[in-house]
Write a structure and sequence with these properties.
The strands form four sheets. A seven-stranded mixed β-sheet has the order 2-10-9-8-5-3-4, sandwiched between helices. 43% of the residues are buried. β3 (86-90), α4 (93-105) and β4 (109-113) form a beta-alpha-beta unit. 40% of the residues lie in helices and 16% in strands. The protein is built from twelve helices and 15 strands.
Length: 351
Amino acid sequence: MNRIRYSFQPGPAQLHPEVPSAIQEALEAGVLTRYHRDEVWKSLFARAQAALLAHLEAPEGWLVAFVSSATEGWHLWIQATADLTALHIVQGAFGERWFELRAAISPFARKYEWDFTVSPEAQVEALQSRYQGIASLALVHVETSKGAWLPDISIWRKAFPGALIGLDAASSLGAIPIPWNEVDFVLASVQKALGLPPGLGVILLSPRCLETFQDHPAQAYNALSRLIRMARQHEPIYTPNLLGIYLLARTLPSRPPVSQYFSTIRERARALYEKVAAKGYTPILPEPYRSPTVLAFKAPSETSLQELHQRAENNGLYLGRGYGELKNLSFRIANFPALPDEAYETLLSVL
């Protein structure tokens, strides 16, 4: 097995450079064998919550809770809003999966399959007319399967001012600023743009969301109301990924806020789309819908794609595999903060 220097996989993704030493510190301090509800861990839990909110520049009043994965975040949103009318915007495989989970338990679920040939404004205007009064929306900020994104969430809030809006930010949290005033519930995981090992999910709840769901009946052990109560007292609802929480508390305070390097992420994405296309690989989506954090390209043939993956690994690079309909003809490139410019220069030379 070749040693991987740089991973462009969208998740698990490249680890932040601080992670190895922080893991060693956790082992030496013995915190991973302490009771997860003692005062040491309640303090670490609170530090991790505060560090994440500061790094993401969330407004006052938002609450962080830790869960097992972004997928559990899907379920928490579905459970909490099961009795509300819901519209899911589907751009690809992950949005489709979130909707299918919703449709399995709720008769009030509807979906709209995004049209990448039509402007966002025209589509939102048509949806506003058709679904006026809808109670909840489910949006995927970056659709990891094909590198799509919704660049302007404000148009959704303007079109549906009364709706509760849930945002899957699995491939944007930590690299793209979250439009906090436009959404109510944000879900993600730490193994992508935050550059941490896999196995920990996060949800962030707005003051409106907290007020709406804090007293809901706890119909499951991990019900949102119970999760809110425990997170407010800096405790997990079950034994969590302690290492992931420790790493958030330990590494995020030394990083700049997301807004300070988003322009770098966008500029690097622009250059990559141009340079990779010049080497014979076609971007899957039209320019307005291409995500700055997960870039998806089509190879000329299955054989050339297999050769590309092998050549990359021979040079210590790990490309993201294709997903969905174009799985055997496409590859993805993660553009996350943990990857240095040198990594992309090496990738372009291999391409």
